[in-house]
Each structure stands twice: as structure tokens, then as C-alpha cells.
Amino acid sequence: MAGKKVLIVYAHQEPKSMNGSLKTIAVEELSKQGCSVTVSDLYEMQFEPRATRKDIIGDLQNPGQFNYGTELSKAWEMGCLSEDVIVEQKKVKEADLVIFQFPLYWFSMPAIMKGWLDRVFVQGFAHDFPQCFDSGLLKNKLALLSFTTGGDKGMYSKEGDSGDIRYLLWPMQHGIMHFCGFSVLTPQICFAPESVTEEDRVQMLTSWAKRLKTIWEEKPINCTPEWYFK
Ligand code: FAD
Ligand code: ZN
From the CB of 194, is ligand 1 less than 6 Å away? Predict the structure, then answer.
């Protein structure tokens, strides 16, 4: 849809990777639709993933005992956050849809992406109390996790060794995205791209491009299925 803004937060070291191809296809397809697409290429940017004192410019509220969350929130309020964080927050603020493109690392996202979330989704900017979940501060935006795995689909079934993929989606989709107010779209999962045939990989890329053509018509999912932990 022309005029829509998309931010792709991308974490892969190699442009020729499957993740690199998935990212490129999304940029091409969404741009073709007239969307304005911004990519935060975290490894290329050498994005700082560590949550430290350096994220606050100037004096601390309590220099005697450092509390990252409290200091960060205050720094956000006072406009004293580190410039690299401010730049990313601006991209998030403008986006209608944020796509997270990454390879699954330890049932989660790579550390550099987790660090991006730790530092960018600051209390006061992305959430507050009681402004979380449906009233999270990033409401009216869409989030979509697009990732690749090492394990195949069978491994991530309820009977498989890894268990149902929805167990690991829950912390990311519900604990982070929904918590901050995002409406969550169905995740795009490419199972085991390293193990499948070239033909299957091409098919994965084609189906992602096809899905993106109608992405703006999609309804958000319920990321808190009733069966979790029962
Ligand atoms: P790549 O190896 O880059 O790509 C696969 C193949 O696709 C390559 O041969 C590439 O050349 C080819 N390709 C790229 N573009 C195209 C194109 N346009 N057309 C056709 N072919 C193309 N996996 C799990 O399941 N669970 C875990 O918990 C987990 N933890 C991990 C932790 C760490 C620290 C690491 C390093 C890996 C872990 N993995 C895990 C595995 C990881 O998720 C996979 O290795 C990764 O998702 C594969 O994606 P990739 O983009 O890196 O693949
Ligand atoms: Zn949820």
C-alpha cells in the first residue's frame, strides 16, 4: 500500500545468506507497492547491543547505584539518550509495520537484535505502567517476526524434540511485541534452509514475496493462545 512505512530490523552477517535474501525480497516487494522501506542492518551498523551507562548522556539521577531501566527512562524523558538509540526510536515511531528478520539463535533472536530491543524499546517510549499490552505505547503498529531455523518443521511440532514452535514465539511475540502495544502478524518461518533443496529455498523466497503483496489486508493473530503452559 502506497505511503505505508516499513522498518526492517535485520540481523545477519552475510548478505548472501537466506536471511539476506529474505530481507532483499521484502525491500523490493514493499518498495514496488510504494511503501517507504527503511532497513536497520544491525551487523553492518555495528549496532551496540550492550545496555550500559553510555546510553545516558550527562549526569545520572543516582550515580551512587546505577539502575539501567530507571536511568534510561528518565534520560528518554529529558532527551538525554544516546544518539544511536534516538535514531532507531525515530524509525520505530514512523513505522506502520516493523519486520524483524533473523536466524533463530538458541530459541530466540541473535544477541545483537535482543540488544537493539533492550536499548530502543525504552520505558516511556515503547511501554509504561499501566500502558502495556493492548494499551502499549506502540499500539496501532504491526510487528512481524520473519526468521529461519536450523531444525526442520517436524522438530518444531508438538511431538518433535524442540516442541511446538509457538512456545518460543510466546516470549518474543507476547512478551516483547504485544507488551509494547504492537499488533502481531503471523510469523514467517523458513524451516531449515541449509538442509532443504535449492528448489525449496526458491519456493520459500517466492512465498514470502507473494505474502507481502497482500500483507496490509492481514488480520493480527492472538499471540496468547489459551493452551500455553497448560
Ligand atoms: P544460510 O546458510 O545463509 O542459507 C542457507 C542456504 O540458502 C545457503 O546455501 C545460501 O547460499 C542459500 N541461499 C541464500 N539466498 C538464496 C537464494 N536467493 N536462493 C536460493 N538459495 C539461497 N537453529 C534452531 O533451529 N534452533 C536454535 O536454537 C538455533 N540456535 C542457533 C544458535 C547459534 C549461535 C547459531 C549460529 C545457529 C543456531 N541455529 C539454531 C541455526 C540457525 O538458526 C540457522 O543456521 C539459520 O537459521 C540458517 O539461516 P541462514 O540465513 O544463516 O542460512
Ligand atoms: Zn499477546
Answer: yes
Q: Is any ligand 1 atom within 6 A of the Cβ of residue 106?
A: yes
pLDDT tens-digit series, residues 46-95 = 999 999 999 999 999 999 999 999 999 999 999 999 999 999 999 999 99
- The CA 66 to ligand 2 mean position distance, Å, reads 31
Q: Is the CB of 190 under 6 A from ligand 1?
A: no
Q: Tally the C-alpha atoms within 13 A of residue 128's C-alpha that lie toward its C-beta.
A: 8
Report residue 230's pLDDT band, with 50, 70 and 90 as the boundaries: low
Task: Pick the ligand that lies closest to the CA of residue 228.
Answer: 2
Rounded Cα–Cα distance for residues 151 and 203 (Å): 18
Domain around 133: 5-228
Q: Which of 229, 218, 131 is nearest to 183 (CA)?
A: 218
**What pLDDT score does 101 carry?**
99
* Ligand 1 atom with the shortest distance to the CA of 156: 25
Express each pLDDT in 131-170 by its tens digit: 999 999 999 999 999 999 999 999 999 899 999 999 999 9
Q: What is the number of domains present in the chain?
A: 1
Please state, in angstroms and rounded to a whole number, the distance separating the CA atoms of residues 164 and 145: 16
Helical ranges in 46-125 per DSSP H: 68-78, 83-94, 111-120
- Domain of 105, CATH number, reads 3.40.50.360
Our answer on whether the CB atom of 198 is closer than 6 Å to any ligand 1 atom is yes
Q: Is the CB of 148 under 6 A from ligand 1?
A: yes
Nearest CA to ligand 1 atom 27: 106
